[in-house]
Design a protein that fits this description.
169 residues; alpha+beta; 6-stranded antiparallel β-sheet
Length: 169
């Protein structure tokens, strides 16, 4: 903020130009702070110590369809991913049953409630390795704010204990 005389002359108010530059500078500082926070945590130690695994309610399934237009209500799916062979969709089991969609694997969904950066190194490896030692298969989805883990429904409680134990390592 150098180069500007922010002290008003005796009996005069600072000009619009001065206020504009002060507001602009404050906005730029705020945005740089917010954007830095939005990128998420990269430090593996901090991620492991502060992650909060949350077991989401319900049963979830992976299904395939030829095109998104075949989904009766796209708002009712959790997510989709386009592959060369088909579109994979993940949704609640009861929706798949209602829509007569085939599936072969019923999962539970765990969200790691810590904002991990998409550039973070080692988080997926750490929890996947811990789950491997307990013979728990995991299917991982990294979204912008959190990592999501899909595990066999019957392994849900064991997976939660395993993930919570990582916080103390």
């Amino acid at each position: 903020m150098t180069g500007y005389n922010y002290k008003a002359k005796e009996g005069k108010q600072p000009s619009f130009f001065v206020f504009y530059h002060l507001i602009n500078r404050c906005c730029n500082l705020y945005l740089s702070f917010v954007l830095k926070k939005m990128t998420g945590e990269k430090d593996l130690t901090i991620l492991l110590q502060n992650m909060e695994p949350v077991l989401n309610a319900g049963e979830y399934v992976f299904c395939t369809i030829e095109a998104l237009s075949k989904i009766p209500d796209i708002e009712k799916i959790l997510f989709f991913f386009r592959e060369n062979e088909a579109v994979t969709i993940v949704l609640k089991k009861e929706m798949a049953d209602e829509w007569s969609m085939a599936y072969s694997y019923i999962t539970a969904w765990i969200t790691l409630n810590i904002h991990s950066s998409l550039e973070a190194v080692g988080l997926t490896a750490a929890f996947a390795n811990a789950l491997k030692h307990e013979s728990i298969s995991c299917n991982v989805v990294a979204a912008y704010f959190h990592d999501h883990i899909f595990i066999a429904k019957e392994d849900a409680e064991k997976a939660m204990k395993t993930l919570n134990a990582l916080k103390t390592v």
